[in-house]
Amino acid sequence: MRGSLNKVMLIGNLGDEVKMHHFDGGGCIGRFSIATNESYTNKTTGEKVSNTEWHNVVVKNKAAEICEKYLKKGDKIYVEGKIKTRKWQSEDGIQRYSTEIHVTEFNFLSSKNDSSSDSNFNSDDDDQNESIKDDNQADDLPF
What we know:
The chain is of the alpha+beta class. Helices cover 18% and strands 46% of the residues. Strand 5 (76-89) and strand 6 (95-108) form a beta hairpin.
């Protein structure tokens, strides 16, 4: 196989609110962390082991605005994207690296009212459901 693939799919919970950064040209990015959990039983000791991994997530432009509007700490989300490593310099002059997930697709898995629910929620769903309701009310056909 000659090609390569850089694709990440995560389901986890937000570790904090979405932090927005707006640019002079009108664009913006949102950053937040997602926690994923893994549990297993150690075969030798029989002890249950739980591990949490933290992932730095980046969303851009309209997707960032949607995430900022609808997501809050603890919400469950599905994200799909690419791994990118960013090089930056700290205040003390040391070169640092950050590995981030740059999101291409996402789906909210918590409902608006109950962040512990697993019902599917997407910001576009409200508009679609509203237009379907309007069409059904205007048409009294039995089929």
